[in-house]
Design goal:
The complex is a heterodimer of chains A (445) and B (415).
Chain A lengths: L2 H4 L2 E5 L4 H19 L9 E5 L3 H21 L1 H7 L9 H14 L1 E4 L10 E4 L5 H14 L5 E4 L6 H8 L5 E6 L8 E5 L6 H13 L3 E5 L7 H39 L6 H8 L1 H15 L7 H8 L17 E4 L2 E7 L4 E4 L2 H11 L9 H5 L4 H14 L3 H22 L6 H11 L12
Parallel strand pairs in A: 1-2, 1-4, 2-3, 4-5, 5-6, 7-8
Antiparallel strand pairs in A: 6-7, 9-10, 10-11
Chain B lengths: L7 E8 L19 H13 L10 E5 L3 H4 L9 H4 L8 E4 L5 H14 L5 E9 L5 H8 L5 H5 L6 H17 L1 H19 L15 H5 L22 E9 L1 H7 L7 E10 L13 H14 L6 E6 L4 H10 L8 H6 L16 H4 L4 H16 L16 E8 L4 E9 L2
Parallel strand pairs in B: 2-3, 2-4, 7-8
Antiparallel strand pairs in B: 1-5, 1-6, 4-5, 6-9, 8-9
Helix pairs in contact in B: 4-15, 7-8, 8-12
Organism (chain A): candidate division WOR_3 bacterium SM23_42
Pfam families (chain A): 3HCDH (PF00725), 3HCDH_N (PF02737)
GO biological process, one term (chain A): fatty acid metabolic process
Chain lengths: 445, 415
């Protein structure tokens, strides 16, 4: 069965979540494009979007429509040719609306897992819980045909392990999209020892069709993305521990967040990123990795405390940031959670100035991640930035260079442990999945 | 013999900021001034320069497609909104796609020549940021032949029309010769706009404009032969200019020395249902310029300033040829050699043009005239060019559609 045939009936489980809904948008447009081909006119296409609550599905309906509209507005050049034969559709607006109608018509929303029974391609993007995932796959395996392929969005649970527990016989592949899936180019593809070749081919073809950058990762818990991110985050947390005697806890969080964002020219500071992912998700992934890798170091008391206090980060349904390590107003950090006082301390300009004075200034002429993003000379500029940092005798420069070194060492470990095959693969994950301007393995040190 | 049977003057020119992407104050999701604001702002900007606004006899408003961008028709009704004394005075709205402003100038001049008014306040206006560009492209496509062309046309209908012209020019004159000329047009437009605080590209700080101008096209998302920098901007703005007879100048209280004489115009209309005879030429623009020169009894060498309709860089190059400054196929080299820069042999689009200042479509023709009037009366500020006694003329060439509706108008510095 080829990909076109498989795309006639697809299911996304956990469809109302941030990953599931994005995967839904991507697949819906591929199905709509197929449906528009003259030879497919009489075929029925169906995308089952399954989640646990009607309430969540209601939000998903609105989200899917808005996203498909955005997609259509961006692909109008192509859509005009796809709707060439429709003489009644003349203006862009008419063609865009027709595409949104055609693609929403394939959507089938519901809470019943049985909706998946005729699907040949099943995406699963529920929360990281091995037991629940196993249970779902076992049920699916009983209901669906023996030729159904399963693509899991897990970012930490080993694929072979899951496949074996659910008895899928190699019909499961790790297909780890990054948030938000519609925008992020990266998909980490994890094949287990027994993953069947046909599924590998289908996964590859689908990735190309979705214009994603596919990076292979070995079937070792955490894979490349979380394998790096978790340890990178733990490094920042251990630095906070070290710095808190000097800056107090709140100051130390501020310092490490600023070092990672401004000094290392990343899109957001490390604590903002943990908030973005969700502190509970961070904890959960650490636990999965700790269990499968047997590495006790993959634990953070600070993270456990934050979760216990129900300060969790994550996002609201509209995509805005929930408070976590940092407090947000219009998605900008305005305070830092003081774990001892159980409240947010506002970050005032005066306070920032005082802390900034202790870590020292950025190298002269340095511009932000955002400014560098579109800069054709960004490589040169980054090189100059780190060369200057290396020579500067400030605490900020020292912390930044230590962080850079650490981040590189984590990446090297991933290669030596066989998680990633090459340094290019690790760098590709950090650049495409985390929007870094440079890979963790670089010559800046 | 003069083309006009009496003297007509233009004075008190004014235009608003061209608002849209590029301006620091522009934010697509924040509320913005509406159509009536620009009409009022432009109108007041003009009449504040005269002593007796109550003596303005009539109004004319050029606008392309407010009915779609702003759901607004009956624009003449905003004439009395400008000033109380305009209540119950005549006002018409004229439309000729992106040459609506040009037609408004012509309508005003005709009214003076017909002895029906001594002074006419001529306004051009457009607000286009009300919808995303992909929908705006639908509205602007009305400048072409809807029932004959739109269905087979491109998502970005007009950019594609001129992309095809660029492609034809690459084939005919060579990519290496022509493409850098288009990029140079972009460079000049931005450099001039940086001297014009009202220009949409006034805040542009790009240090390598030529490289930007040479950006490879992206046919999947846009056009085959042009990039987005080859295009004029999506803009909101208004412009106003007063036309008056000698008697009219006296009545409204403007000294002749503060006005500029309108010596000739040509308005030329091509058939909307036929394709352009030659994609590598702006045939209608050329006819309009020739007629205007004949009627003014001057030659291109008598002009000291030119303002052409560079809705796209390729249109700018071809318009310079059509205005008689460069031979067929020589526009690109002419521009590359610096002839159209502020200190060149014929300073062109001195305030930034449609690419640098912006292109609030219905306002553009009027804005062009305001710039030429400002130049000839030495009020152009930082982008003022030298006006010599032996070359006291300036010309605008304003175009609607794909070289379909054209106005060329020639102005002369007063003695």
């Amino acid at each position: 069965m080829n990909l076109d045939e498989r795309l006639q009936d697809v299911t996304v489980i956990g469809a109302a979540g941030k990953m599931g809904s994005g995967i839904g948008v991507l697949i819906a447009q591929e199905m709509a494009k197929l449906k528009l081909k003259p030879e497919n006119k009489d075929k029925v296409y169906r995308l089952n979007l399954i989640d646990v609550s009607e309430q969540a599905l209601d939000g998903l309906r609105a989200y899917m429509k808005a996203q498909l509209l955005k997609v259509a507005e961006k692909s109008t050049v192509l859509l005009r040719s796809l709707y060439e034969d429709r003489k009644d559709l003349v203006e862009n607006s008419e063609i865009i609306n027709a595409f949104v109608d055609d693609s929403t018509r394939v959507l089938n929303f519901g809470t019943d897992l049985a909706m998946a029974k005729n699907s040949h391609l099943v995406f699963e993007a529920i929360f990281e819980n091995e037991k629940v995932k196993t249970k779902i796959y076992r049920r699916l395996n009983k209901m669906c045909g023996a030729d159904a392929f399963y693509l899991t969005n897990t970012s930490s649970i080993p694929i072979g392990h899951l496949d074996e527990k659910a008895g899928l016989g190699g019909r499961l592949i790790g297909y780890h999209f990054y948030n938000p899936p519609v925008v992020q180019k990266l998909v980490e593809v994890i094949t287990a020892k027994n993953t069947i070749d046909e599924l590998k081919e289908i996964a590859k073809e689908l990735g190309n069709r979705l214009r994603k950058t596919l990076v292979p990762a070995s079937d070792i818990s955490g894979f490349i993305g979380n394998g790096h991110f978790m340890r990178d985050g733990l490094h920042a947390i251990s630095e906070v521990d070290r710095l808190k005697s000097r800056f107090r806890y709140v100051g130390a969080v501020y310092v490490m967040n600023r070092i990672s964002q401004d000094f290392l020219a990343r899109p957001m500071g490390i604590f903002q990123l943990i908030d973005y992912v969700g502190i509970d998700v961070f904890q959960c992934i650490l636990k999965v990795m700790r269990t499968h890798l047997g590495d006790k170091a993959l634990r953070s008391r600070l993270i456990d405390k934050m979760v216990k206090e129900k300060v969790l980060g994550g996002q609201y349904a509209d995509g805005s940031q929930k408070d976590g390590f940092l407090k947000y107003e219009k998605n900008r950090p305005v305070g830092i959670y003081d774990i001892r006082k159980h409240e947010y301390q506002p970050v005032t300009e005066d306070w920032k100035k005082r802390v900034d004075a202790k870590i020292g200034s950025l190298p002269e002429g340095f511009v932000s991640w955002r400014a560098l993003l579109m800069d054709s000379k960004k490589d040169e500029k980054l090189k100059a930035h780190f060369t200057q940092l290396k020579e500067m005798d400030t605490l900020g420069a020292e912390l930044a260079m230590d962080y850079l070194k650490q981040t590189g060492a984590i990446a090297q470990d991933l290669i030596s442990q066989g998680v990633a095959k090459t340094k290019d693969d690790v760098n590709a994950v950090l650049k495409n999945g985390f929007f870094w301007l440079y890979g963790p393995i670089n010559d800046y040190l | 013999m003069s083309f006009f049977r009496k003297k007509v003057y233009a004075c008190a020119g004014f235009y608003t900021v061209s608002l849209g992407t590029g301006r620091k104050e522009f934010h697509p999701k924040k509320p913005r001034p509406g159509l009536e604001h620009y009409i009022k702002d432009a109108g007041l900007g003009s009449i504040e320069q005269i002593r007796n606004p109550e003596h303005i006899d009539e109004g004319v408003i050029g606008n392309f497609v407010a009915a779609r961008f702003c759901h607004q028709g009956n624009l003449g009704g905003f004439f009395p909104y400008i000033h109380d004394t305009f209540q119950y005075k005549p006002c018409v709205r004229v439309e000729g796609a992106c040459d609506s402003g040009g037609l408004a100038l012509v309508a005003a001049v005709k009214t003076i020549l017909a002895d029906l008014a001594d002074s006419v306040l001529c306004i051009g206006v457009e607000v286009q940021n009300s919808v995303k560009a992909v929908y705006g492209a639908d509205y602007l496509a009305a400048a072409g032949w809807y029932s004959g062309e739109r269905k087979k046309g491109h998502a970005y209908f007009f950019p594609d029309q001129f992309s095809q012209r660029a492609g034809a020019c690459f084939d005919k004159f060579g990519f290496e010769k022509f493409r850098p000329g288009m990029a140079q047009w972009y460079v000049n437009a931005i450099e001039n706009a940086r001297k014009n605080p009202k220009a949409q590209e006034y805040h542009n700080r790009n240090s390598d404009l030529h490289a930007t101008g040479m950006t490879s096209p992206n046919p999947k998302a846009f056009c085959e032969y042009i990039n987005v920098f080859d295009c004029s901007k999506v803009s909101d703005g208004g412009a106003a200019l007063i036309f008056a007879s000698e008697e009219g100048l006296k009545k409204i209280g403007v000294d002749k020395k503060d006005a500029v004489e309108v010596v000739a115009y040509a308005q030329v209309q091509d058939n909307l249902t036929t394709p352009p005879p030659d994609l590598t030429k702006l045939t209608t623009c050329e006819i309009a310029a020739k007629r205007a020169y004949e009627r003014a009894n001057i030659q291109p060498k008598d002009l000291c300033v030119l303002d052409v309709h560079d809705c796209f860089t390729v249109a700018g190059l071809l318009a310079v040829e059509a205005a008689g400054f460069a031979g067929y196929g020589e526009g690109a080299d002419f521009v590359k050699d610096g002839n159209t820069k502020l200190d060149g042999t014929i300073p062109t689009n001195t305030s930034g043009g449609l690419i640098g200042y912006g292109h609030p479509t219905g306002a553009t023709g009027v804005r062009q005239a305001v710039d030429v009037v400002h130049q000839l009366s030495s009020r152009a500020g930082d982008y003022q060019v030298r006006i010599s006694a032996d070359r006291p003329y300036g010309m605008i060439s304003s175009m609607g559609g794909n070289d379909k509706t054209v106005v060329a108008m020639i102005f002369r510095k007063t003695e």
